[in-house]
Design brief:
Layout: H1 2-26, H2 30-42, H3 48-57, H4 77-98, H5 108-132, E1 139-144, H6 145-148, H7 153-162, E2 165-171, H8 177-193, E3 197-201, H9 204-210, E4 214-216
Parallel strand pairs: 1-2, 2-3, 3-4
Amino acid sequence: MLRLIDANLNRISEGLRLLEDVARFILNDPRLSAELKSLRHELAAEDTSLEEALLQARDSAGDVAAFAEEEAHRQDLPNLVIANSKRVEESLRVVEEFAKLHEIQLDPSRFKKARFDLYDIEKRMVAKLLRQDKRVSGLYVIIDSEVLGERDELEVCRQAIQGGAKVIQLRDKHRAKGQILVRARELREICAQSKVLFIVNDYLDIAIASGADGLHLGPGDLP
């Protein structure tokens, strides 16, 4: 049983390291990188006696399925991230279930929490990768609260995307920045779900805080 735990803990560590490197070196995203690093460290064996027992139980040469089939080629970077995320999530579930046995000195709740944390991280990483190489093209919709009047901005955004919009820009010259940030995050989430670019008008701080894909500035504007 320790061999099983050891193999899955290794898969978890290796997969998280790959995801962390993608977040750090390809996406240049310090937040995602830090979250993955923290997750990897939190799951490391804290009990040295357990760590030693796992190491002694390891038998890579005796693993009957180690080279049973050739690894599939990955179509692109998003698919690579998805494949490794699924691999880690599956191993987290395996360890979580076996940790419920009395003889395994691991806390199953740690692995359950990590699994759900990774579901969210995977979604954000893949969405960012899918948007990374896009250029601003296609139908470009500007959502301006002053122009919309009583119409709901979120619903207008959804309708615009359904109508084929490839870029959504939030323009708001009147509300307080705190209110604009709340709305920007909501619009950003809608756009991310449909792989549509989200742009913030004028405010660099709001663009960064909301996770927008870009910032629109006029000829005389400074960020």
